[in-house]
Amino acid sequence: MPCLLGILALAFPRIVLILIFLFSNYLDRAYHSIIWPVLGFVFLPLTTLAYAWAINTRGSVDGLQLVVVVLAVLIDLGLLGGSTRGQRRERLL
C-alpha cells in the first residue's frame, strides 16, 4: 500500500494531499497549523508531501530526507521533467 501511495503522490500530489488530510493525522504531525499545508496544496504539493514525510520519519530534514525535499522542490518548480518550451521545440523538429 505505501508503494501505491508513493506512485500516486508523484502522479497526483494534490489528490494524495487531500486523502492524507482527510483520513490521517500525517500532515498534523508535520505542520502545526493549517496554513502551510493549504499553501503547499496550491503552490508546491509534492514538496509539502516530501517535507511531511521527512518530519514524520526522522523528525528533521537532513541527509536523505533533505535530498528528497530538494528533489521535490525542483520537480514542483518544473526544473526536472521538461518544460513547455522544450516540448514545443521538439514538435517543430
Describe the structure.
The chain is an all-alpha fold. It has one domain (2-92). The protein has helices at 2-11, 13-23, 26-30, 35-42, 45-58, 64-77, 84-92. Helix 1 (2-11) packs across helix 2 (13-23) and helix 5 (45-58) runs antiparallel to helix 6 (64-77). The radius of gyration is 15 Å and the shape is globular.
Short description:
By secondary structure, the chain is mostly helical. The chain has helices at 2-11, 13-23, 26-30, 35-42, 45-58, 64-77, 84-92.
Average the pLDDT over all residues and give the rounded result.
85
Oligomeric state of this protein: single chain
Question: What is the 3D shape?
Answer: globular
What is the N-to-C succession of helices and strands? HHHHHHH
Secondary structure: helix percent: over 70%
C-alpha termini separation: 42 Å
Strand content: under 5%
Radius of gyration: 15 Å
Sheet with most strands: none
List keywords for this structure.
93 residues, mainly alpha, 7 helices, 76% helix
Tell me the layout of helices and strands.
Elements: H1 2-11, H2 13-23, H3 26-30, H4 35-42, H5 45-58, H6 64-77, H7 84-92
Helix pairs in contact: 1-2, 4-5, 5-6
